[in-house]
Specification:
It contains 11 helices and 21 strands. The chain is an alpha/beta fold. The strands form 5 sheets. Strands 1, 2, 7, 8, 9, 10, 20 and 21 form an 8-stranded mixed beta sheet that branches. Helix 1 runs parallel beside helix 7, helix 1 packs parallel to helix 11 and helix 4 packs across helix 11. The longest helix is centred in the C-terminal third of the chain and has 20 residues. The structure holds flavin-adenine dinucleotide (FAD). Flavin-adenine dinucleotide binds next to helix 1, strand 8, helix 8 and helix 11.
C-alpha cells in the first residue's frame, strides 16, 4: 500500500474502554482516525449471541464442558466468565505469556475489548488519592490533581451515563449522576448500623455505568434504560450499560472520520529518526500474517496496560534501543494492581418477610475510611469495600441431594438473607514489579511474549488483615450471624485492574509521561490506558482512564491545530 493511502491524522491502538474514548473525541473534532484492533469485529446487538438466552438454552445449563475447563485453567477463573460470556474472553492456548511469578492476565480481544465484560463500577478518585503516594513516601507525585480531571470526569459521566447518589464524601467525590437503584432492606439496615456504630464510615451507592434514566444524549447514542436483567456481560440489547461497542465507537463512526481495522495486531510503533517523532504503527494481520504500516500525526496507545507496555517495549529504534521513550529505563517497571484478596460474609436474621424486585446490576460500597489524608495505619494506602445483600433460593444445602418436584419446591421458596463484603485495595507501585519481553519465546505473530514478574508485599498482607477484621466487626455490630472471612491469596492479575509501567510524572528522570499523557521523549505518542497510572488509588480505575483519554485527546487536537504535533 502507498503511504498516502495509509495515512491518518490519528491512530488509536485498541478499541476498548479507553480506545473508544480516544476515537470519539478525535473524530468529533475532525481528525481522520484509524482504530487498530487485534480481535474480531463486534457490532452492537448483532454480535451478542447469548443476550436473550435462558439457562436451559445453553448446552450445559450455563457451565462449560470439562474439556474446556481443563484446557483453559486461567481464563475460566475470570470474574463473569461462563458459557454466556466466553466469546468475549480469549482462550489460554492462543495467547501465551510467561509468569515468572504467578499472574493471572485476563484479556478480551475483540472490538470493544473488556468494555463488553467489565463490572461497570465508576467511582471518582478523591483528591487524596492523587497526592498520598508522594506525601506518605510510597510513590512519586502525580503531575495532575483532582481539579485538573474533575471537568473531564463530568464530561465522561454525562456521556457514559453513571448512576449514583451525591453523598458529599471526601473519599469518593460526587459527579454527574443518574438516579441509583434502590437498596434492599438488608442493605438499608447495614447502612444504618454502620452509621450508628462507626461514625465516619459511609455505606452508599457505588457509581455504576448503568442507564437508570437515560438523557437525550444517551437516546441519541441509540441506548435505552437498563432493564435490571443483570445479564450485562453478554452485551446488552438495550444499551443499558456502557461499552465502547454500544456508545463511543458508533458515535465516532457517525462523524465519518472513523476507520476501524479489526484483526490488526499491532507489532510496534515506528520511529522516524530524522523527524524525531513517531511516524506510524506496524501491524500484522491476525489471519494472513501480512505486515502493514500505517502513518499518522499522533498515536494513542490504548491496548490495555500490559499490552500497551508490550507494544512500547517492542518499539525499538536506534534512538530508543530499549523501547519507545524509554530513556530512563523504567518502562515496564512500577506495575501495580488492586488487592482483591479479602472476602467476608454473614447470615442476616430478621428480614424473612421481605423480598426485592428485579436483578439489580449494581452494589453498595463503603467508601475508603483508612489513611484518608493522614497516615494512621501500619500500612499505606486505602481500600474500598463493595458490599450487598441477597436472599438465597431455598435451603441451598439440600440442592445436591434433591431432584424433581421437591427440588422445584425448594427453589421456589425464599431462603435466608445473606450479606457480603469484598476488598478493593490500593497497592504500592514498586520498581521490582515488572513486565518485560521474553528474549526467547514469541507468539504466533513473531512478537516476543510478555514476561510478568509481579507480586504482593507485606503492605498488602496487612491491608487484607485489617479489611477482614473491620468487615467482621461491622457485620458483628450489625447483629449478623455466622461471620465468614477469607483471604483467597489469589495471584495478582485476577483483579483485572493492572496499572502502571509507563507512569505519568513531573520529572522525565523518574517517569515516562507528562501531564498530558505524552511520552516525555516522543511527544506525538499518548498513553492513556492503565499503563499511565502513577499509583493505583482505591477506586475502580476505568472511569479515570476514560477521563484521562478525553482530556489528552482534546489536548492533542489543540496541539495539532496549532501545528505543534
Ligand atoms: C469481569 C471484569 C470486571 C471488571 N470490572 C470493572 C469495574 O467494575 N470497574 C472498572 O473500572 N474496571 C473494571 N474492569 C476492568 C476494565 O475492563 C478495564 O480497566 C478496561 O477495560 C481497560 O480499558 P482499556 O481500554 O485499557 O482496555 P480494554 O478495554 O481491554 O481494550 C484494549 C483493546 O486493545 C486491544 N489490543 C490489545 N493489544 C493489541 C495489539 N497489540 N494490537 C491491536 N489491538 C490490541 C484488545 O484486543 C482490546 O480490544 C473489569 C474487567 C473485567 C474483565
Amino acid at each position: 500500500m502507498k503511504q498516502a493511502d495509509n495515512t491518518y491524522d490519528a491512530i488509536v491502538i485498541g478499541s476498548g474502554i479507553s480506545g473508544g474514548w480516544a476515537a470519539k473525541e478525535l473524530c468529533e473534532h475532525g481528525a481522520k482516525t484509524l482504530v487498530l484492533e487485534r480481535g474480531r469485529n463486534v457490532v452492537h446487538n448483532k454480535d451478542y449471541p447469548t443476550a436473550n438466552l435462558h439457562p436451559w438454552e445453553f448446552p450445559f445449563r450455563g457451565r462449560m464442558s470439562a474439556r474446556f475447563m481443563e484446557e483453559n485453567p486461567l481464563i475460566t477463573k475470570a470474574a463473569g466468565f461462563g458459557a454466556d460470556t466466553a466469546h468475549f474472553f480469549i482462550q489460554d492456548k492462543d495467547h501465551p505469556y510467561v509468569q515468572e511469578k504467578p499472574f493471572d492476565w485476563i484479556r478480551g480481544y475483540q472490538v470493544g475489548g473488556k468494555s463488553l465484560t467489565w463490572g461497570r463500577a465508576c467511582q471518582r478518585w478523591s483528591k487524596h488519592e492523587f497526592v498520598a503516594p508522594e506525601k506518605f513516601g510510597y510513590g512519586i507525585g502525580w503531575p495532575i490533581t483532582y481539579d485538573d480531571v474533575a471537568p473531564w470526569y463530568s464530561h465522561v459521566e454525562k456521556f457514559v451515563g453513571v448512576c449514583g447518589t451525591r453523598d458529599g464524601i471526601d473519599a469518593m467525590p460526587d459527579g454527574e449522576f443518574l438516579p441509583p437503584f434502590e437498596f434492599n432492606c438488608v442493605e438499608r439496615d447495614l447502612k444504618e448500623k454502620i452509621a450508628t456504630h462507626f461514625p465516619g464510615r459511609h455505606l452508599v451507592h457505588a457509581r455504576w455505568a448503568q442507564l437508570t434514566q437515560p438523557t437525550d444524549l444517551h437516546l441519541q447514542q441509540g441506548r435505552g434504560k437498563c432493564q435490571a436483567r443483570n445479564l450485562c456481560m453478554r452485551g446488552c440489547p438495550f444499551g443499558g450499560y456502557f461499552s465502547s461497542v454500544s456508545s463511543t465507537l458508533p458515535w465516532a463512526e457517525r462523524t465519518g472520520n472513523l476507520t476501524i481495522r479489526p484483526h490488526a495486531v499491532v507489532h510496534s510503533i515506528l520511529y522516524d529518526e530524522q523527524k524525531r517523532r513517531a511516524a506510524g504503527v506496524r501491524v500484522i494481520d491476525a489471519n494472513t500474517k501480512e505486515v502493514h504500516d500505517f502513518y499518522s500525526k499522533v498515536i494513542f496507545v490504548n491496548g490495555s496496560a500490559l499490552n500497551s507496555l508490550l507494544i512500547l517495549m517492542n518499539s525499538r529504534s536506534s534512538r530508543f534501543p530499549a523501547g519507545l521513550g524509554n530513556d530512563n529505563g523504567i518502562l515496564g517497571k512500577y506495575v501495580a494492581f488492586h488487592n482483591y484478596r479479602g472476602y467476608a460474609s454473614a447470615d442476616v436474621p430478621g428480614f424473612e418477610d421481605n423480598y426485592y424486585r428485579g436483578r439489580n446490576p449494581t452494589e453498595p460500597i463503603i467508601a475508603n475510611y483508612r489513611n484518608l489524608g493522614k497516615q494512621e495505619m501500619d500500612y499505606v494506602g486505602g481500600f474500598t469495600t463493595f458490599t450487598g445483600a441477597w436472599r438465597e433460593r431455598g435451603d441451598e444445602s439440600k440442592l445436591e441431594t434433591t431432584i424433581g418436584a421437591e427440588l422445584k419446591d425448594i427453589r421456589a421458596t425464599p431462603g435466608p438473607w445473606k450479606t457480603y463484603m469484598y476488598l478493593q485495595g490500593e497497592t504500592i507501585p514498586k520498581e521490582s514489579n515488572t513486565v518485560s519481553l521474553s528474549k526467547t519465546a514469541k507468539d504466533q505473530w513473531d512478537i516476543p511474549l510478555l514476561v510478568a514478574s509481579v507480586d504482593y508485599d507485606t503492605n498488602d498482607d496487612k491491608m487484607v488483615k485489617d479489611f477482614l477484621d473491620q468487615s467482621a466487626e461491622m457485620l458483628d455490630r450489625a447483629g449478623y450471624k455466622n461471620i465468614f472471612q477469607n483471604d483467597s491469596h489469589q495471584p495478582p492479575g485476577l483483579d483485572i485492574h493492572e496499572m502502571g509501567g509507563c507512569r505519568m510524572g513531573k520529572d522525565p528522570k523518574t517517569s515516562m509521561l507528562n501531564k498530558w499523557n505524552q511520552l516525555h521523549a516522543c511527544k506525538n505518542v499518548f498513553v492513556t490506558d492503565g499503563a499511565c497510572m502513577t499509583s493505583t488509588g482505591n477506586q475502580s480505575p476505568s472511569i479515570l482512564y476514560m477521563t484521562q483519554t478525553a482530556r489528552a485527546a482534546n489536548y492533542a487536537i489543540e496541539e495539532m491545530r496549532s501545528g505543534n504535533l
